[in-house]
Amino acid sequence: MSLGSGRGAWAIRLGAVLAGVAITLLLVWVGSLCDSERTGLLAGGLFAVAGVGPHIEGFTFNGELAAAVPSTAAVGMSLVAWRRDSTRWLAAAGLLGGSAMLMKQSGFDGLAMAFAVGLAAKPKLARVGLVAAGAAAPIGASALAGWLSGWHAYWTALVAYHFDPSTGAGRLSHLHQSLPALASDVLPLVVVALVGLWIWRRRLEARFALVWLGAALVGVNVGGLYWAHYYVQLLAPLCLLGGVALARIRVPALGWATAAVVSLPALAFLGAYVQASESSRELMVKYALGYDNDARVARYVRSHSSPDDRVYAFVSRADFYFLADREAASPYIWAHPLNTIPGAKAALARTLSEPQRPRFVVVFQRRPLQRRDREVDAVLDRYYKPVWRSPSRTTVLEEEKPGSVG
């Protein structure tokens, strides 16, 4: 599994910007299709600012942001299919809706919208079949690759571990911890979106919007961990409904001023960030200090290894592999699947002890695993030795030479 790249972190940041711009423009299109040009502009404007979501990590290139691009495009194509009674556009909507699910399993909201449009006119069965056929292309290709590489591992990693009992037990706790971020960035959008939904209450578009928003809400709840960035999936449908409400304000300037008020959490954060000192900025932006440490560790590993060497990091440090430009030795790079998928820790222990084991193992956390596996500990003690420690107490372990292993 290779996450390395020589392009640097700017490529990821550029990806986030391009995704945000794409969703903004797509919302302008979607709003124009289902209501008016002014609704589209306001919906896009809301997303362009409120979509930064400083507390829900809307500014990062997460899976929800990436999946929202084809998903929102699927919504737009579904509306074109509805207006023109076009089967081609409906099939294309299914294709993009299915593609979004390959970027994030919960990104099925665009596909749900396509199915809703398919059911809105006759012949319903044929139209739904076209959507399913379009979605089957990317999803089927992924399933085929999973079958060829090992279905059990594919299904467990992609779907089954999300429903692990340990996740369900902590669901309410995770949800409670995420509520402050949700309230800070999303609550103002929810209020204005409810107004938009009320305005549309007698129109078919209201049902379509509810399907889109409802599917996004289900997607947020599927995983059960309620990481802040899960809520990014709600932004596009909320901004559309918000645009509907704001477009009904007769004075255009007042409509845009209200949009600024709705976006105030993001605007206030950006204003404070611009005025803050360099050290304060690092504290304001989540992961900034962690990124600096990851980059420092990555430089050490990159300078003491070759491009052919594999590495492993405990745990949930995908940026480390990218920054070090080194291949991850195990597919289990995230804490939750490593802690919940049966046999994951044993597989990791085998990877760390095999003859072609990774050159470096980096321990970012003191207790990276729940119920720390003795087998993993024993392997680290036998085959690796500490060679460097960062100021943030991240420890780099290097593979012991074959002759020195007891």
Short description:
By secondary structure, the chain is mostly helical. The protein has helices spanning 9-34, 37-50, 63-84, 87-103, 109-119, 124-158, 165-169, 171-185, 187-199, 204-222, 235-247, 252-262, 264-275, 278-284, 288-303, 318-324, 335-340, 344-353, 374-383, and strands at residues 310-314, 327-328, 360-363, 384-389, 395-399.
Question: Percent of residues in beta strands?
Answer: 5-15%
Q: Which whole number gives the mean pLDDT?
A: 90
Low-confidence stretches: 1-6
Instruction: Assign the structural class, choosing from mainly alpha, mainly beta, alpha/beta, alpha+beta, or little secondary structure.
Output: mainly alpha
Strand order of the largest sheet: 2-1-3-5-4
Helix content, binned percent: 55-70%
* Separate helix tally: 19
Rg for CA atoms: 23 Å
Number of strands: 5
Largest sheet: 5 strands, mixed
Give the N-to-C terminal Cα separation: 30 Å
Shape: globular
Spell the H/E element sequence. HHHHHHHHHHHHHHHEHEHHEHEE
